[in-house]
Specification:
707 residues; alpha+beta; globular; seven-stranded mixed sheet
Length: 707
């Protein structure tokens, strides 16, 4: 769904606007906030507040650049939260963090900056006068003019007059349109101000002149091509999707079917249930008594501040062996989450009071793919499970667990690899100098995967395929390892051509762009393993490059990462019989990032021996994120947190008893449940019915007294 359609949903007061916004920009906004706050909980709250403000601002607001507008709101909210919650002493090092977000943080505007903006505006005007009418139209129309809105100039920049002009960022408006990368000396806000000083005639012409039709290209990076010329920013593919439940229809923790609770809240962001211990052994003949505790002690974040968000889970089991023979079991304790979440989840397993050695077993992506709603039938967006019944469907029958614990053969598929190195280009003259690789291939016989390329295009009329990248210049944060991986029939020929920018438009060819292309033969497994090593090494050496995904480097080895990437390719990518739209360009960059981020069932694997006629105690402990509503959902459930428990789902154990308890319940107010807790009257532990598949608990933090 494009931005115009999303904005229309806001104007129609359709709550699908929130879902569509979260699906398309949730990941970007969360990453932006997290880089400032270094707290996933605080980041989620800031993102939710962003949606709330967007809901209240539209109408009358109609942003031209929705991503920029939302990014500015999130940045301001995050900075306000950081400033309010941190003392000067505790803010040590924050300056460095903010420096990593140059493109989203405004600089103080003085006379020198104002002069630079005027010079830049003159350069932009000169650049546009040298472009074709079509290119001027596309560039200016995209940035400044949308759906009949006109610009109104004031000394401080562009302002909106109701029903008249397209809003452009100013001191209290959006910024950050250019996303990651780019010249750190050129911030988005200053560029916006400079664009506001561009020749008036060019702007007005863009408002009136229709663009001529061009050949149909599937092009993912060209939209920002002209911006690359101006600020040297790197381009990126459109990445939709984001966090659990975002972009999906609102599901919830409780549904009135299959033993669910009719009164449970349907949360917009669903965190998944607490699942029971299971084994890799079918019918082990072992009984189990289970006790699950939610501890609502405020959690201390890395900077020492307490936050009433989530709960510490202690899930204990007494395993009984009624036979006269010792039984050794391979235990699997399941936790819902992404690989990137494991450090914050901090799971552990003890056996008979001793910390157990555990192995991480990683299940497949727990969700699916879909559109952004509103009639969008594509498979561009991640669709996470949105209610407990989704996990019931996923895990019922044991197939998911068996696939996770089974043996996976490496993808020993022969491939031909073209590696691009030794880049040269006149980057002083063309800051976004681009190299394009063009070829024709029979898609029934040849499959091409790319890594490190920013652009992809396919001309449906000629069958020509083009991959492109901005020539590395040592300034832009872009991958220098650029590869085309050919599966099947090799390329018969290809052409290399330099262009002024990432648009790779006819008439914008330039000389002086070159590289060395090395052809080699290997297997897909070895190729992916090499990339996985490089990615994890980069995460350790430069965690800021990958942001919050970098936490995965501490829990994942290259071999496991490689096998997960291969599985994703086989299930959803170009190795699948029916690849999803999200990965149908063959670009490995997004797929390999999302291997680390998507929700799965993660199993902690260990062994235990239950003596003949005796028992063994097994306890799992971890932090559990709650389900929650977006602040702007209109539900009135802000700060409400939801938790689900499955009693026996996919467990091979025979349960004889189950209990649940809450600890430090004085810190929360229970607003909904089917457990039977009554802390005010001393009921903090209750018996559960193992025949009832699902229990739910909903709480709100107790407001703290302030001086």
């Amino acid at each position: 769904m494009d931005d115009t359609q999303i904005i229309d949903l806001y104007w129609d007061r359709d709550q699908g606007a929130i879902t569509a916004t979260a699906g398309k920009y949730g990941s970007f906004l969360h990453a932006l906030s997290w880089n400032i706050l270094r707290s996933h909980h605080d980041a989620e709250e800031c993102v939710n507040d962003t949606y709330f403000r967007a809901w209240n601002a539209m109408p009358p607001e109609r942003p031209c650049a929705l991503r920029a507008w939302l990014g500015r709101i999130t940045r301001n909210l995050s900075l306000d939260r950081w400033k309010a919650g941190r003392t000067q002493s505790r803010g040590a090092g924050m300056e460095t963090l903010l420096g990593e977000l140059d493109e989203c943080i405004p600089d103080h505007r003085g006379p020198e900056q104002a002069a630079e903006e005027r010079v830049l505006a003159e350069c932009v005007s000169a650049f546009l006068r040298g472009q074709t009418a079509d290119n001027r139209y596309i560039f200016l129309r995209r940035l400044l003019v949308r759906r009949g809105y006109r610009r109104h100039r004031k000394a401080s920049g562009l302002r909106r007059e109701p029903g008249k002009i397209c809003p452009v960022p100013h001191e209290k408006g959006p910024a950050g349109i250019f996303g990651k990368g780019g010249d750190r000396g050129m911030k988005a806000e200053r560029l916006f101000r400079a664009i506001g000083l561009v020749d008036e005639g060019l702007i007005e012409a863009a408002a009136e002149t229709p663009a001529k039709k061009r050949p149909v290209w599937r092009r993912y990076a060209a939209a920002a091509a002209c911006l690359m010329v101006l600020c040297g920013a790197g381009a990126a593919y459109l990445v939709t999707g984001g966090f659990r439940g975002y972009g999906a229809s609102a599901g919830g923790s409780g549904i009135n079917n299959a033993g669910g609770a009719a009164d449970a809240v349907a949360f917009m962001s669903y965190a998944g249930p607490v699942l029971p211990l299971t084994t890799a052994d079918e019918n082990p003949g072992v009984t189990a008594e289970r006790r699950t505790d939610w501890d609502f002690t405020p959690r201390t974040d890395p900077e020492g501040y307490d936050s009433q968000w989530g709960a510490a889970i202690t899930d204990g089991y007494i395993l009984g062996n009624p036979t006269d023979t010792d039984v050794t079991l391979t235990l699997l304790y399941p936790i819902v989450g992404g690989i990137k979440d494991l450090l914050s989840i901090d799971p552990s397993v003890t056996v008979n009071g001793e910390k157990a050695e555990k192995e991480l077993v990683i299940g497949d992506y727990a969700g699916g793919f879909g559109g952004a709603g509103g009639g969008d039938t594509s498979t561009l967006n991640l669709r996470y499970p949105s209610q407990w019944t989704d996990y019931q469907t996923l895990l019922d029958g044991g197939g998911y667990r068996e696939a996770a614990t089974g043996t996976q053969a490496p993808a020993d598929i022969p491939v031909t690899v073209y590696t691009f190195t030794d880049f040269e280009a006149p980057t002083e003259q063309y800051q976004a100098a681009t190299q394009a690789v063009t070829f024709t291939a029979d898609e029934t016989r040849t499959t091409v995967l790319s890594y490190g390329f920013e652009g992809y295009g396919w001309d449906e009329r000629t069958g020509e395929v083009t991959y492109s990248y901005f020539v590395p210049d040592g300034q832009r944060r872009s991958k220098t390892d650029k590869k085309l991986i050919v599966i099947g029939t090799d390329l018969t020929s290809y052409t290399l051509q330099g262009y002024q920018d990432g648009g790779c438009d006819p008439g914008e060819e330039i000389d002086g762009v070159s590289c060395t292309v090395t052809r080699s033969e290997t297997t897909l497994h070895e190729m992916l393993l090499t990339l996985c090593r490089e990615i994890l090494d980069t995460m350790e050496e430069d965690p800021g490059y990958y942001g919050w995904l970098s936490e995965a480097a501490e829990v994942l080895n290259p071999e496991t990462y490689c096998l997960l990437a291969e599985r994703a390719l086989e299930q959803y990518g170009l190795l699948s019989d029916k690849p999803v739209d999200r990965y149908d360009s063959g670009r490995l960059d997004e797929l390999m990032d999302e291997v680390l981020s998507v929700d799965r069932v993660l199993y902690l694997k260990t062994e235990v021996t239950v003596p003949a006629g005796g028992t063994a105690e097994v306890t799992a402990q971890y932090w559990k994120a709650p389900s929650f509503d977006f602040a702007c959902s209109g539900s009135g459930r802000r700060n409400l947190q939801g938790y689900d428990l499955m009693t026996t789902l996919d467990s091979t154990l025979t349960f004889t008893a189950q209990t649940a308890s809450v600890t430090h319940a004085e810190n929360v107010q229970i607003t909904g449940q089917n457990f039977g807790f009554d802390p005010e009257n001393g009921v903090t532990e209750v018996k559960l019915d193992p025949n009832q598949p699902h229990y739910y608990l909903e709480i709100q933090p107790v407001p703290k007294e302030t001086d």
